[in-house]
Amino acid sequence: MWYHKPVINEELLQSLPNLKIVASSGVGIDHLDLNLLSSYGVKASNTPFVVSTDTADLGMALVLASSRRLMAVSPDTEYFPADWLGAEVSGATLGVVGMGTIGYKVAERAKAFEMKILYHNRNQRNKEEESAVGAIYCKKIDDLLQQSDFVLLSVNLTPQTHKLIGKKELELMKPTATLINISRGLVVDQDALVEALQNKVIKAAALDVTYPEPLPRDHPLLKLKNVIITPHIGSATKKTRRLMMENMTESIQAGLAGLPIPNEVF
Amino acid sequence: MFRSKAFSLLKPIPLMSGQPNLAYKFIHPAIASHGHRCHRRGVDYRQRYKTCPGSAGGQTISAPQTKVMAEEELPGVLVLDIGGTHGVLENVAALLKKHFRLITMKEFLENKKEMSKKIQSVFVFEGRPTIDQELLESLPNLKVIGNSGVGVDHLDLKMISNFGVKVTNTPHAVADPTADIGVALMLASARRLVEGCQVAVSPDTKYFAVDWLGVEVTRATLGIIGMGSIGYRVAQRARAFDMRILYHNRNRRRKEEEEAVGAHYCEKMEDLLQQSDFVMLVVNLTPETHKLIGKKELGLMKPTAILINISRGAVIDQDALVEALQSKVIRAAALDVTHPEPLPRDHPLLKLNNIIITPHIGTATVQATRMMAEEAIANMLAVLSGQPIPNHRRRRATWAFGKLNRWHTRSTAWPHGVPEETFLPHYHEGIS
């Protein structure tokens, strides 16, 4: 399964009596109905770790691009106005929501830019991990939202994280803050986000993921000047895609041979 | 705001002849409040003050002021304009007004006779106003040109020196934001962010192609040409991406500095060019670095390599670059600087799709603009009061409270033997 296609539904499963395993590219499995698969005795796998560094790199790229306004250049430029300014990353506060493998790697990178790092996670990381990146735990997401200049979402999509960031959360954020989403579009209440950006409740957003992908061409997010959208390229590098495929092949081979499956998801 | 505390350090300092330690008085509050912190790290700032080259006879920071500030008029500083397209920003103008009488070019030209005597300094922002022979001749009391920014290639240092005028720059304030932009451009070009954005919003996009790929930054090889203050900070950031770091510099850095960022010295630039996936130019523009990267150098680079320029446009042979990008001799380029700026609208560089160009925004942040102004003001005040230009190593520690730790753990060279490349003097003499 590459990029969530082909879609696995009841009809397809019924027509494939010998199907043993569905190997999905990438780490997200929100598009898979695991109960359905399991009821047909089909196993599933993903590619969790290989995507981490590229996705973290992209997260950092979006933090930098949005803060320094890299995308705001136009062909109509006659001169560069002196008051065209961005905001500094060095010394700013990054709030990582979801400190898994990817979130942690973002923190590692942000630390080198002298960013202050807050994080919110289901569980607190251990002391060594925290101090290695200088990250401070925020048990309540509200605390993180109120103090961060950049809020980066790196959670997986589950019923608990669906619309995790809605109107209330956006209002808790600083009006000078930027929201970065490298997780899944549905983690954010998109309509609330549009409103927040239009009314300058927050300063800007940078989204590698939306719902759906791509957005309908008349969607308000495409028209806003304070939004950067990239076409879900978190893991889009040659090396990583190749590694993903290798992982998937391994999982398939194991599945077909009845052996324990690497990266199996339940 | 992140560094707003540091800005409040700048108190109006009366300009009187004979007042000692102007510079130290300026940074006194920072030292007083951080004495304990320095102590914990085994550093005694007061001691360092006495031994630093800028020390004026080892006087203490708390030397009492013996002379009373008379109602002397503030010295005049010339700027191009306030606000508008090319003028200094309003908040910068406000900072200048605390220490100077602010005179715009318009005011000066309208009343040359009276104004010309008052102007003791010129604040140059984004290369303006242009300092030419005519201007220098019309300002008999000019003592110093305070440049906002670190590059002074737009100033004819020899000519200015002939008039007995000093030039100062602001190496501190620019270092972090410029390093940030360098890495931002590297990431943006590697991952094709600009193209990606266009795909994401294009009215023609129906789906996101699965074979749309960029290249990895993590664990790739970064070649830094010019390992000064800015180049070193780029290396510090790149290290967090697990990059292999090569560097080329006039002089080699100390072993501890190399090890701190995992950088390998390439005595020959060719070696760096041949091995790097990303080549970043962080040199200043001098006759030696003019067209440093030409057809030959581009030919030595990997065909999969990306060239990033955050120094000056003229460091690259632009025509050679156009050709190299068109013929895929290198993969892509990302330029914050070009020659001229902006490029003419029909320039071939603007038509290529394997290039990112940003409008010289290396220091275009609210914080940096302010810090550059403050640094320039301190420089100009020091010259006008006959003080040595503040030692920029110490100043670095005092600019931003939160940075004291960082500064100390990184630099093992201070106070003795600061590597030449990092010690970009605030103070340029007109030596060719």
CATH homologous superfamily (4th level) name of the largest domain in chain A: NAD(P)-binding Rossmann-like Domain
Give the termini separation of chain B.
41 Å
Second rung of CATH, namely the architecture of the largest domain in chain A: 3-Layer(aba) Sandwich
The string of secondary-structure elements of chain A, in order, is HEHEHEHEHEHEHEHEEHE
GO molecular function, one term (chain A): glyoxylate reductase (NADPH) activity
Domain D-isomer specific 2-hydroxyacid dehydrogenase NAD-binding (chain A): 61-234
Keywords (chain A): Oxidoreductase
InterPro entries (chain A): D-isomer_2-hydroxyacid_DH, D-isomer_2_OHA_DH_cat_dom, D-isomer_DH_NAD-bd, NAD(P)-bd_dom_sf
How would you describe what is shown here?
The complex is a heterodimer of chains A (266) and B (432). Chain A has nine helices and ten strands. Chain A folds into two domains: 10-48 and 237-257, NAD(P)-binding Rossmann-like Domain (Rossmann fold); 51-70 and 86-229, NAD(P)-binding Rossmann-like Domain (Rossmann fold, 3-Layer(aba) Sandwich), CATH 3.40.50. Chain A is α/β, with parallel strands linked by helices. The mean pLDDT of chain A is 93. Chain A is globular, with a radius of gyration of 20 Å. Chain A has helices at residues 10-14, 34-39, 52-67, 101-112, 127-133, 141-147, 167-172, 190-198, 238-256; strands at residues 21-23, 43-45, 93-97, 116-120, 135-137, 150-153, 178-181, 204-207, 227-229, 264-265. In chain A, β1 (21-23), α2 and β2 (43-45) form a beta-alpha-beta unit. Helix content of chain A is 33%, strand content 14%. Chain A has a seven-stranded parallel β-sheet with strand order 5-4-3-6-7-8-9, with helices on both faces. In chain A, strands 1-2-10 form a three-stranded mixed β-sheet. By secondary structure, chain B is of the alpha/beta class. Chain B is built from 18 helices and 13 strands. Chain B has helices spanning 4-7, 22-40, 45-51, 90-99, 105-110, 112-118, 133-137, 157-162, 171-190, 193-201, 229-239, 255-261, 269-275, 295-300, 318-326, 366-384, 392-399, 404-410; strands at residues 76-79, 101-104, 119-125, 144-148, 166-168, 221-225, 244-248, 263-265, 278-281, 306-309, 332-335, 355-357, 427-428. In chain B, the strands form two sheets. In chain B, strands 8-7-6-9-10-11-12 form a seven-stranded parallel β-sheet, with helices on both faces. The longest helix of chain B is centred in the middle third of the chain and has 20 residues, at 171-190.
